[in-house]
Amino acid sequence: METDANEVEIIERVAALDIGKAVLTCCVRLPPLPGLRARRQQVSDHPTMTRSLQHLMDRLVGLGVTRVVMEATSDYWKPAFYLAEAAGLDPWLVNARDVKHLPGRPKTDRLDAVWLCKVAERQMLRASFVPPPPIRELRDLTRYRVDLVAAATAEKQRAEKLLEDAMIKLSVVASDIFGVSGRAMMAALIAGQRDPKVLAELARSSMRKKIPDLQEAFIGRFNDHHAFLLATMLARVDTLTADIASVDDRIEAHLGPFADAVAGLDQIPGIGPRTAAMIIAEIGVDMTRFPTPGHLASWAGYAPKVAISAGKAKGRNATGHGNRYLARALGEAAISAGRTRTFLGERHRRLARRRGPSRANVAIGRSMLVIIWHLLAHPDEQFHDLGPDYYTTKINPDRKRHDHVRGLQALGYKVTLEPAA
């Protein structure tokens, strides 16, 4: 580090990359030559092919660069980041919104690289969270699983719409048309069976109670055109289901080093092994990246933004945008926790009655993040549920009595309290 005349701590040797798909621009800022005051600056363009990037990293290492800063541009930053990481160059990925170009100045790749480098050398940027390689691999698997599940769900919805087009009302009678009974009936339809009585007799287990309704549901106009499309859709559903199972096995294998962390998060109501794996894939297990639970909640988008102008708060209670995969996992966990007889379940129900289920989900998600931070930051600690009766046993009786009295007074009543015998 060095200090200039204005006492600003400056990184002596820093590089910034303005990355595109085919070409990146690199700006390097170095200490001045002996006898000069102005810092040296080198700007160059490089192809984004791996060999060219490797030569660039070797050059930066030779120049003694200690930090390489780049904007998060699509996925184009990943090759440069990974190679810089392997070369020990301390790569920083920064949010493009934090690097605002001054208005009125021309905008080119070279000027952007110079501006990013100047801002970086004065340490005016924050590094985005990029997990280590093992967590990145786990993240790739869990996110791909989410995409596969979404694709399978979309294909099932298409199949249901196709049955509606054929006037087959199977989804009205069966809650899940892709269960054992539903698949057997759709297979028979594809094979050419059109008799409603024969199709209804394919029902299994508890579905047999609905045979009369099923007979009515299969009175429609299902033809060979529908059979072709339905067969194609069911084949895609089966393929996606097999892919999901394969990815699940791969996730299980990658969770080996994180088995203790998964077991710790599994103690939290609403969080099972699969949700725990998704959470770990998004935030990792090293909580030194987040100094406090509040930092983790803010990064995840579960903390209200502070926006005050002229003494007035704007956008109060707005949390902003965070990690959508983490938000999905926490939202599902919060809903599941709301159905349990636990402290989090009771808190969810109390908040849902007063503020609505959406706000309750966000509040419980933040509470879960606080618990997760403590369990990951202190692996020896265990989760202890406070119980569903925590509020009723811990609330101050005097405060509760005061609240009831004020509520009645607000309705226009004069309240006189007399202790019971």
- Looking at the structure, the CATH topology of the largest domain is Helix Hairpins
Which architecture name of the largest domain does CATH use? Orthogonal Bundle
Q: Whole-Å distance between the termini?
A: 76 Å
Q: SS-based structural class? A: alpha/beta
Beta percentage is: 5-15%
H/E element sequence: EEEEEHEHEHHHHHHHHHHEEHHHHH
Instruction: Kindly state the percentage of residues in helix.
Output: 40-55%
Q: Detail the poorly predicted runs.
A: none
Give the overall silhouette: extended
Question: Strands of the largest sheet, in order across it?
Answer: 5-4-3-6-7
Averaged pLDDT, please? 88
- Rg to the nearest angstrom? 30 Å
CATH class of the largest domain: Mainly Alpha
Largest sheet: 5 strands, mixed
The strand count comes to 9
Tally of helical runs:
17
* Domain tally: 3
